[in-house]
Design goal:
The structure holds 2 protein chains of 2 kinds. The longest helix of chain A is centred in the middle third of the chain and has 8 residues. In chain A, the strands form 2 sheets. In chain A, strands 3-4-5-6 form a 4-stranded antiparallel sheet, with no helix packed on it. Chain A contains 1 helix and 6 strands. The radius of gyration of chain A is 15 Å and the shape is globular. Chain A is mainly β. Chain A has a single domain, classed as Folate-binding superfamily (Folate-binding fold, 2-Layer Sandwich), CATH 3.30.2270. In chain B, strands 1, 2, 8, 9, 10, 11, 17 and 18 form an 8-stranded mixed sheet that branches. In chain B, strands 5-6-4-13-14-15-12-16 form an 8-stranded mixed sheet. Classes of the chains: A mainly beta, B alpha/beta.
Chain lengths: ~90, ~425
């Protein structure tokens, strides 16, 4: 269990949040032009990194807003949270 | 078999205070080259090596394991074995495994303590009832034993369940697979390791894979913490770490690795002689031969490799357990742990070739891989040896995520994942 610093509400218990998977997966701009392989890549394939990963989270039992998180999946340490639409840090 | 276990060997060794048992498998250093290298020394990996040697006459095989064999999810699951899956492809896959389980102790000359004590799945609402009845019919059409029980029959089969209509998740019925049950998880890994070792498989522990060497579209070998090993065929059976290995080869898999928790209580006298699974509320309970209650919980919703999991998941499971089994209200829990499970979008496994020649993946078993161990090893060995899937695992290829021909067991199996 860990504490998450919601960019809108501040520090809250993890129980209030819902994980939304890998962040910055861009929706295809021309869905009708996509091949089956490209659809599979977009819909199903994930980096699933052991280490620092970019994720989406939702403050489901709070402000209900989505935001991004940089988290180390090997020790659950949260490096950074930032709002939707903001550019991911390069690091 | 040079060192066959029997009642006579037990008596003989009793006279020397059990100090002269031979070691069950060797501890070799890696050779420079193997025909096939299996990455991952859990039950599935060791079974794969065992069947490669036994059924496909391959001699020069290694299993590399980053820790010790059976130390990952093989030693962390709740040991439930069943084959009551909804879809034909899954039913074929899991029942193939169940059939091997039935003769496994004899085959391996190693007691895996397979106990067909039955697995009962509970229904808590009308939709559960419909789903479970549908699955019972589907199972029987596939030749898998299944019966539907009403509330009274559930109570009769497992008297300690609270079947009052007033509880939060009332028991409206259930299904029972009598051939299902449990086995000793460590023994499965050790039995396969001993059998594989005897046929000349090198089981190399404390040997972590840190890179996969490719030459164009084919594999050339693996880089490990104990040096480079040349090989033309790599079978990856790394469970929660499958994506980590795939990333080394420049592949992406449709997997997310999440913590799944389990816990055991203090040992008590026999109180529950079957396995009861409550899918909707994620409460699975059975009793080990030592007397501990073995309790399975649900997965967390975020990717993590920490083998811990969140507190509220355990709390939710124990709430449900107490509601269903008020008799356990004063039980104390001894240990809690997590395992990292690799979950596919359709909650079905991948036993498949890849776009890279000589690289095979056996992964995506998610929350329920233990039950499939013997079948998974057998079919994966077939896939590696022939460079073609067996008809029982043909549907579980990696290409199904491109073609859309998914085997959707999310909620359709006996468990809500």
């Amino acid at each position: 269990m860990f504490v998450i610093n919601c960019p809108y509400c501040g520090e809250r218990d993890q129980q209030e949040f819902k994980a939304g998977g890998e962040a910055h997966i861009e929706r295809p701009k021309q869905p009708t032009e996509l091949s089956d392989d490209e659809w599979a890549e977009y819909l199903f394939m994930r980096k699933n990194i052991k280490g620092v990963q970019f994720e989406r989270w939702n403050h489901a039992h709070g402000c209900r807003k989505w935001f991004n998180m940089v988290r180390d999946t090997s020790n659950d340490e949260i490096k950074l949270v930032y709002k939707m639409g903001e550019k991911p840090p390069l690091e | 078999m040079k060192n066959k276990y029997s009642v006579f060997s037990l008596i003989k060794n009793a006279f020397s205070d059990h100090e002269n048992w031979q070691r069950a498998w060797k501890d070799p250093s890696p050779k420079k080259e193997y025909d096939t290298v299996i990455v991952g020394g859990g039950g599935h990996g060791l079974a794969t090596a065992y069947y490669l040697a036994k059924k496909h006459n391959m001699k020069n095989i290694a299993v590399v394991e980053k820790g010790w064999i059976g130390g990952g999810n093989t030693g962390r699951n709740t040991t439930i074995i069943r084959s009551n899956y909804l879809w034909d492809a899954s039913a074929g896959l899991y029942d193939h495994a169940l059939k091997i389980w039935e003769g496994l102790s004899q085959e391996l000359n190693y007691n895996v303590m397979f106990s067909q004590r039955g697995v009962m799945n509970l229904a808590h609402n009308l939709q559960d009832v419909r789903d479970l009845k549908r699955r019972t019919h589907a199972n029987r059409l596939n030749g898998i034993d299944a019966v539907y029980l009403n509330t009274d029959e559930v109570k009769k089969f497992c008297p300690i369940i609270n079947t009052s209509p007033d509880i939060r998740y009332p028991v409206l019925g259930g299904t029972l697979q009598r051939r299902a049950g449990t086995a000793r998880h460590d023994a499965v890994a050790w039995g396969y390791a001993r059998g594989a070792d005897e046929m000349g498989v090198d089981i190399i522990q404390n040997c972590e894979v840190i890179g996969i060497k490719r030459n164009g579209d084919a594999v050339e070998g693996i880089e490990t913490t104990r040096g480079f090993i040349k090989t033309k065929k790599i079978g990856v059976v790394a469970a929660g770490h499958s994506s980590v290995i795939a990333n080394m080869a420049g592949l992406r898999l449709p997997l997310e690795s999440k913590p799944l928790q389990a816990l055991v209580s203090e040992p008590v006298k026999p109180i529950i002689d079957t396995v009861v699974m409550s899918n909707a509320v994620h409460a699975y309970v059975s009793q080990s031969d030592k007397g501990e209650l073995v309790i399975g919980a649900g997965t967390d919703d975020y990717v993590s490799y920490t083998q811990k999991g969140s507190h509220q998941i355990v709390e939710g499971t124990l709430n449900a357990i107490l509601e269903l089994y008020p008799i356990f209200s004063r039980m104390r829990m001894l240990r809690q742990w997590g395992g990292i499970v690799d979950i596919c979008p359709d909650a079905s496994p991948i036993l498949s070739k890849t776009s890279i020649k000589g690289l095979y993946f056996n992964c995506g078993w998610g929350t329920g891989g233990f039950k499939a161990t013997p079948g998974s090893g057998d079919l994966f060995a077939h896939t590696i040896a022939n460079d073609e899937p067996h008809k029982l695992n043909a549907a579980f290829n990696l290409n199904r995520f491109v073609s859309g021909d998914l085997v959707d067991e999310h909620g359709a199996a006996a468990v809500a994942h």
